[in-house]
């Protein structure tokens, strides 16, 4: 037990911090309850999915600055395909969007591997490309979303035979996030591919000498990031019922949550649970500032300062780790 706690101390600390923040939220607004948790989960869901994708790429020793733009492409594509579609057609639309996300991420990775241009340069360029693609598909918010898709992330969980008073405190958005991450990341993490992500993030040359195909593995990491970006774009459409062609503030937030969650920017170390908890910590801070009636501009400054400080702290740690 002590070994488990020692190895996951940072993640446990984030969980405790989140619990304290929720207690503070209850103190600030005594009527905070299941509906407040549902709103928190829905607002955090796109950030959490973007963060998971970013964390996977960072673990593999890279970074993807186009994650928010890929989310926008996925959001508008889903909204256009589902507008007026039947439930069966909407299912195929969702599958098409997920494949699109895999393709966008794989293209990013392939360009990095083939050209050997630094990933920060390639993905910055692709940010503008995917942003333009999103605006070509839908030049203004619009489209639609299937009712069953929206229901996946709205409200509390309902279980047969269980009183709603017990289940309404568990938002569907949290369950959706847990199911998606478990279905996609856990099998990868336990496979050779997951080990290769960590290997190339720790030391690409050592990984290559050990028989790891560094190029294909790096492309796979960006492809998985694209898949989670597509899921994040779908979650935006799920929450709003329309497609959003303008990329949201997910890039810096995802990088900050990755660093705050214990993933080293140099790659090779970290997990997924910590960054997810970090997302909820940051979103709860934002919600508390709103409940305290802090001026939105001041709240944005505070939130941005926290993110920048976290990212700078992570960069310092990564630099020291490389020197060590």
Descriptive report:
It is a single chain. This protein has 15 helices and no strands. By secondary structure, it is mainly alpha-helical. It has a domain at 34-248. Helix 4 (67-82) runs antiparallel to helix 5, helix 5 packs antiparallel against helix 6 and helix 14 (273-291) runs antiparallel to helix 15 (296-323). The two termini are 30 Å apart. The chain is globular. It has helices at 2-7, 9-28, 34-59, 67-82, 87-115, 119-137, 147-151, 164-167, 172-189, 192-202, 204-209, 214-240, 250-260, 273-291, 296-323. The model has no long low-confidence stretch (mean pLDDT 88).
How would you describe this structure in keywords?
globular; 0% strand; 324 residues; 76% helix; mainly alpha; 15 helices
**Termini, distance in Å?**
30 Å
**Share of helix, binned:** over 70%
Q: Mind summarizing the main beta sheet?
A: none
- Taken from the alpha-carbon principal axes, the silhouette is globular
Q: SSE string, helix = H, strand = E?
A: HHHHHHHHHHHHHHH
Number of helices: 15
Q: How many beta-strand segments?
A: 0
Radius of gyration: 20 Å
Unreliable runs: none
Strand content: under 5%
Mean pLDDT: 88
Computed structural class? mainly alpha
Give the structure's gist in a few sentences.
The chain is mainly alpha-helical and 324 residues long.
Layout of SSEs?
Blueprint: H1 2-7, H2 9-28, H3 34-59, H4 67-82, H5 87-115, H6 119-137, H7 147-151, H8 164-167, H9 172-189, H10 192-202, H11 204-209, H12 214-240, H13 250-260, H14 273-291, H15 296-323
